[in-house]
Amino acid sequence: MSENAKIGRRTLIGALALGTALSLSGMAWAQDVLKVAAVWTVPVEQQWASRLHNALVAAQERGDIEYVFSENISNTDYERVMREYAEQGVGLMVGESFGVEQPARTVAADYPEIAFLMGSSLPPVEPNFATFDNFIHEPSYLSGMIAGEKTETNQIGMVGGYAIPEVNRLMNAFMEGALAVNPEVKFSVSFINSWYDPPKAKEAAFAMVDAGADILYAERFGVSDAARERGILAIGNVIDTSADYPGTILASALWHGEPMIDKAIADVKAGSFTASDYGIYAFMEHGGSSLAVDEALAGAEVVAAAKAKEAEIKSGAFTVEIDDAEPSSTM
Predict the structure, then answer these.
(1) Lateral strand order in the sheet of 233-238
(2) pLDDT > 50? residue 101
C-alpha cells in the first residue's frame, strides 16, 4: 500500500480512546488528565499541521494530556467531527478554521466549557475561542536576506498555498529581506489554491525556473522537488527538509509549535485559558520560530550577516513588519 493510501485511510483515529464523556454541565477545563482533540483538513505529515501535531504528541508522551486526532477532514465534514469530539468530553480542541470559520465558531459557542485553540485569520471570540497563526515572518525575513545574496539571476520564484494573511506575511517578509541586501532582485509569485497538492506546486515552480528563477521559495510541498530536479536552490518553510533535499535547501524559516501548545495546555489546566491570540508564541523571542541555514551552501559571510540581523530582532533593535497584503509578482 502506498504512503498516500495509508494516509487516506487514517480518518477519525487517535492514539488513545477518549473514555467516558464528562457532563456538559461540568467544567471540562478542570480535567485531571486533560483530554485534547485535534481536527485537521490535511494529513498530519503536512508541514503546518505537523508542527502542532508533533507538539501535542510530545505533551502526551510526557503524560500531560491524552491526545486524539482526525486528519483529512473535508470542510463540509469539519463541524460534524468537532461536535463528535465535543460530545466526548474533551477539554481542549485544536484545529484550523481558515476554511470553516463560521462552523468552528458556532461549535465553540455551543460548548463554552471547552477551550478552542484554532488557526484563524480572524479575531478570538469570548469566552473560549482562542486563535493563532504561524507568525514566522522574522526567520522568513532572514531567509530572504540569504536568498537575496545568493541569487545570480536576480530572479526568485515563490509558490504559496492560498493568498491569506498567514501565507502573505511570510512571503512579504521574505521579499523584504531579499530586497534589503539586493535591491535588484525580482519575484514571481503564484498561489496554487490548495494546502496540499505537490504536483500542482511543482508544476508552478517549473514554470518559474523556465522563466529565469534560480532560487525557489517553497511555501508548499512539491517546490523543493522542482528545485532539486532543475539543480537550483530552494528556501524551506515551517519544517526543515534539508535532510530530504541535500544540496538544495539553502535556508528555512522554521515554526516550533511547542511554546504555543504547551502554554495553551498550561492555561487550560490552570483555569486561566482565555479567548486571546496565541500567535505571539511563534515569535523568535518565545522560541516559536528559528532560522535553519546550510552554511556550506550560503557561505560564512552571508550566514554571519543573517545571524547579526537575527540578534537585532531578538533584542528588539530591529522589527520585521507584519504585512498581510497579498504579494504580487515584480517580474
Answers:
(1) 186-191, 155-160, 215-218, 233-238, 249-255, 289-293
(2) yes
